């Protein structure tokens, strides 16, 4: 099919014939109705031991519509068909498995072609067959195609002596690659080798969105996205890929065996993020730096390093993993499951039902509400450890834990998805977020005056949660859904950041108002205001800096948003001053400061205003290409997260909030300086807090120009002496 036109109905017969195996041939058109009525059927065909898994000949019937083959005469007719020419060579497999749908196994028994049940019912994952094994061929089905954003993958494993068939789908295009197992390599089957080489060169195409796909398989193992990996889906910073391969060695092995894998240089590195069980400190993503005094927090320097790593680095992820406990225990694959870390800070579940029908009667806007659900409106079919869950419901607050929601979890009397108790079933993994972002109402429009500092607590903890949930190669996939736990339509300057996590529209509670929804895979990620949490309430030990987790987050966002780091033709220091267009904390003599900077020939100076009139990607381009970033206390200084490693954040004045951006800079690992001599600044007035009383944040300031330039010079010296800055310029000069 070309473009977006009407699908063409294909009446050409498609046949996959395997040596010494009986097969079936069907067409899409005259078998479609029967298939829908019969459900998912698979045929088990006997074969002599030794032939199973070997490649036979590939034929394409081209004689038009053919009735289902039921006898050996028809088999002989098919066997005499010439090898593929203009036919349609298409691999076939169970349609639910093909589309990456876990499905359920009911009614999916394997049968011989005489109709007698000779197999056992088996689920989609880890199903077992008789040792005499019989390949699965002849299954015909016309599944509903996925939307263009669907990107399912399937891995099919052949029998011994074996090879693996990788099938990946892109719209209506199929490609097949064959990977050998050691047993097959040792078999020296030259005839099979030649057949495999021919198959490797073939593009397997469907001429319609209805795919007709029986395949030679012994067993099929699938997850949401499967393991037959398409390497173009690895959308990570190049420096992160070795860590990804270490986490998923099966993907690394496929890359090693695939000559088309573009990440060969990332293979073979002994590296790890830092939370893996077998991760050695010398191989971890980062090594904490604690050059300063701990001020009595701990007894030794080693304790200081360990404390920082646990508080604000991948050690925090490690602790969440170690704390995980099962709350809802499944017995069978179709059952529900739920596991959480302590205090219900992070949870993940399968086959979970949430009842949103009561939202039809809620008239008030929902945000930070702890009564969205009530008893029995969230649950699953499982062995429910109710006392265990109740014991962790000890931090009931909107943004501190999932206790306000999970305290109402209950055991359902039956499997909600299997029994069709759901109005909607969400097949893709779904992350539910309770975000720390408020919108400002103006007279004309509800616009997104969202505090960047608080909102990036949400994004950072979502990224950290991807690592906590890192159990599958699709860990960093954007083929997920995000549901924000409020009824406000999301709108903010920072909406571009969602692109780094999902390729789908962001949902809110209005999306499913009045419906009962079941989630195949559900994640309740780390929250923005957890007690002793990450970012907002992180109690950072004195004297330490450079969190690998914050560094990785910065790289991840910049990579996904495609923010470039521009090459330079000189060694000048790029200085950016962030100007405020708000009522308070304005720099009254800003023009003088800018003029003083411009008089220094070693500086490239720019003034920026970050507000809703400049999209966030453009803001990041300015920030990421700055060496010194200057601004008075305010949420805009959160941009320090995206400065280059050698940069300096100069908080012109902290307005008596000393630790906020100092701690964030320490976590990110960039140099922080601020105004020290209060006699060389002028405060416009005492400041007037909206709730009454004097307050340093609610007034404006002017600064001594000479002292300002001196502090900038201190920052410039740090930049010039930083090894990463020198390496960057050396690389730039080599390229030029």
TrEMBL record:
It comes from the Eukaryota. Keywords: Endoplasmic reticulum, Glycoprotein, Glycosyltransferase, Signal, Transferase. One of its GO terms (cellular component) is endoplasmic reticulum lumen. Residues 102-114 have a biased composition (Polar residues). Its EC number is 2.4.1.255. One of its GO terms (molecular function) is protein O-acetylglucosaminyltransferase activity. The keyword Signal applies. It holds the Pfam family Glyco_transf_61. It catalyses: L-threonyl-[protein] + UDP-N-acetyl-alpha-D-glucosamine = 3-O-(N-acetyl-beta-D-glucosaminyl)-L-threonyl-[protein] + UDP + H(+); L-seryl-[protein] + UDP-N-acetyl-alpha-D-glucosamine = 3-O-(N-acetyl-beta-D-glucosaminyl)-L-seryl-[protein] + UDP + H(+). It is an enzyme of class 2 (transferase). Residues 99-125, 140-159 are annotated as: Disordered. Residues 548-649 form the Glycosyltransferase 61 catalytic domain. PANTHER family: EGF DOMAIN-SPECIFIC O-LINKED N-ACETYLGLUCOSAMINE TRANSFERASE, GLYCOSYLTRANSFERASE. This is EGF domain-specific O-linked N-acetylglucosamine transferase. It comes from Timema cristinae (Walking stick).
